[in-house]
Design brief:
alpha/beta, Chemotaxis Receptor Methyltransferase Cher, domain 1, Rossmann fold, 2 domains, 39% helix, binds S-adenosylmethionine
Length: 295
């Protein structure tokens, strides 16, 4: 199968065999189909789909086949092969896992408020300019949580603070941009904060207010492709995404992230992630917290 628009090396499919137990489903999926899907996922997003994900991937892609009126995965894969431009984005949106929450792994936000921001206030007392990146922002709960911490630490307009929120998945980014969340989802935000930074949207939803949104910028960005990013960040959140990547991809990614950070900048990664054996360009600064070392 040719994979247009990518320079990624071929996925080692030795460990991914897929199973034929999905042949009797509504949309028959062979082990070979799953293998091809895994190759496409890896080549276009770096996501490694191991065998036990087949059930989950079947469920997510079956929705696409139903919507497109396609009878089986042979035909769907043929369509992807012949016209990646038309279906590739929806394919990638379907295979990504977008689990997130407001103030998820709250110790990162406490560290940001109590350790990083006081340092930034001193470091940038003249320029008053701070740049932050949420590199796998999903539906926005992470960048809005960061924005609340910054807005509370820097009331008023004297400081130029921008948070770039990016994700490969265009569907979740659209949700993030809208900033509308169910009553249930905002339960992770303290009542006083919720009152301050969100307004009631309707009976079932809240929406982030314009002042919170004003320091956020949402952009679609594939971490594996060249980044149209100028300048360097003072803080990077790259959480709960590298668990889907293999070691080689993780190494390249953190080399690139390192280049896009200022000296001593702070990097937050997810609770089950580590930079041990991945990068020596950062030093540990707390639990899943790292400081950028000079090159
Ligand atoms: C589990 S969510 C993590 C969200 C948030 N960082 C958190 O920790 O709560 C992982 C996100 O990574 C995104 N993702 C996966 N592969 C990506 C890639 N190659 N480039 C950019 N984002 C990617 C997915 O779309 C998904 O929204």
């Amino acid at each position: 199968m040719t994979v247009p628009g990518t320079t990624r090396s071929t996925f080692d499919v030795g460990s991914v065999k897929g199973s034929n137990t999905f042949l009797n489903k509504e949309f028959p999926m062979s082990g070979k189909n799953f293998q091809q899907i895994s190759e496409l996922a890896y080549q276009h997003s770096g996501i490694v789909l191991i065998d036990r994900k087949q059930d989950m991937i079947y469920g997510r892609l079956a929705r696409r086949l139903r919507k497109l009126g396609i009878a089986n995965f042979d035909l769907y894969l043929q369509q992807l092969d012949e016209n990646w431009e038309a279906e590739g984005t929806s394919f990638l949106n379907a295979i990504t896992t977008n689990k997130t929450a407001f103030f998820r792994e709250n110790h990162h936000f406490e560290h940001l408020a109590k350790t990083i921001i006081p340092n930034l206030k001193i470091k940038y007392k003249t320029s008053k300019r701070i740049r932050v990146w949420s590199a796998a922002a999903s539906t926005g709960e992470e960048p809005y949580s960061i924005a609340m911490v910054f807005k509370e630490a820097f009331p008023g307009k004297a400081w130029d603070i921008k948070i770039l929120a990016t994700d490969i998945d265009s569907d979740v980014l659209a949700k993030a941009q809208a900033g509308v969340y169910t009553n249930e989802r905002v339960e992770g935000i303290e009542a006083a904060r919720l009152r301050k930074w969100f307004k009631k949207y309707d009976a079932e939803h809240y929406q982030a207010n314009d002042s919170l949104k004003s320091i956020l910028q949402f952009k679609q960005l594939n971490l594996l492709e060249p980044w149209p990013i100028r300048g360097q960040f003072d803080v990077v959140f790259c959480r709960n995404v590298i668990i889907y990547f293999d070691l080689k991809t993780q190494k390249t990614l953190f080399q690139n992230i390192h280049q896009h950070m200022v000296d001593d900048a702070c990097l937050y990664i997810g609770h089950s992630e580590t930079l041990l054996n991945v990068s020596e360009q950062f030093k540990s600064y707390g639990l899943t917290i790292y400081k950028r070392l000079q090159s």
